[in-house]
Amino acid sequence: MDTFYAILLVIAIVGGVILIRFLISKGVNAVAKTANKHILFRSEYIEGQQLVSESLSFESTASVPDIIRQLIAQVAPEETIPAIRGAIYQISSSPDHIVYAYGSKLQPQIFVAAVSFTNSGSTTQGVFKFLRWKEKEGMVVCDEVMKRVREKVYTAFTAADPSVRVIGTPVKSN
Questions:
Q1: pLDDT on residue 1
Q2: DSSP-derived secondary structure for 35-103
Q3: Number of neighbours of residue 88 by Cβ within 10 angstroms
Q4: What confidence score (pLDDT) does residue 39 get?
Q5: Higher pLDDT, 36 or 80
Q6: 55 Cβ partners below 8 Å, 6+ apart?
Q7: pTM for this structure?
Q8: What is the pLDDT, as a whole number, of residue 22?
Q9: What parts of the sequence cross the membrane (predicted)?
């Protein structure tokens, strides 16, 4: 019977240590997130939040197929999800939208972005926006890749129609 209580005591101690370690880890992450937002990386935090919250809208006389061809040429998504290194790949497409993701088989969909189109007469309107993204300690993960994708989408819009009217600007990557 004493062995049983000893085993229970060891299990309780190990469980308690794991719980305390988990709680300390959560506390440290919360402090790091707050420090990153307000003190250490304030400008990077603000820039990342602007990047994911602002859409890129356009109005063009180019047809949707022309714009899609330019998107494929400029964004150049991988045919399949890479095994290890991250890359842009296409999740889905239809005549009125394309959904891209960045990641690998080890870490799929670090961020997901979409371009959607609507036709009204001879005018094509569209919107590019980030749908999902990951953050670490409050900071947007892979923000430089996100900026490059946004730039490439902007370039595709202007390549399809040099007189395109774009609302929003591409965020220049470093």
A1: 64
A2: HIIIIITHHHHHHHHHHHH--EEEEESS-HHHHHHHHHHHH--BSS--SSS-EEEEEEEETTEEEEEEE
A3: 19
A4: 66
A5: 80
A6: 127, 128, 129, 168
A7: 0.75
A8: 86
A9: 6-24
Domain 41-167 is in which class?
alpha beta
Q: What is the pLDDT of residues 2-17, one digit of tens each?
A: 888 888 888 989 888 8
Residue 31, CA distances (Å) to 21, 27, 39, 90, 129 in order: 15, 6, 11, 36, 30
Buried b (16+ CB within 10 A) or exposed e, 128-166: bbbeebeeebbbbbbbebbbbbbbbbbbbbbbbbeebeb
Cβ 127 vs Cβ 56: under 8 Å = yes
Q: Give the tokens for residue 126.
A: 């569209």
Beta strand 97-103 with 56-60 is unpaired
Q: In what order do the strands lie in the sheet with 123-133?
A: 87-94, 97-103, 111-120, 123-133, 56-60, 165-167
Unique residue bearing structure tokens 């990557």: 173
The DSSP bridge pattern shows strands 123-133 and 111-120 to be antiparallel
Residue owning tokens 């019977």 = 1
Q: What own/partner pairs with CB < 8 Å and gap ≥ 24 does 99-102 have? A: 99/131, 100/75, 100/149, 102/142, 102/145, 102/146, 102/149
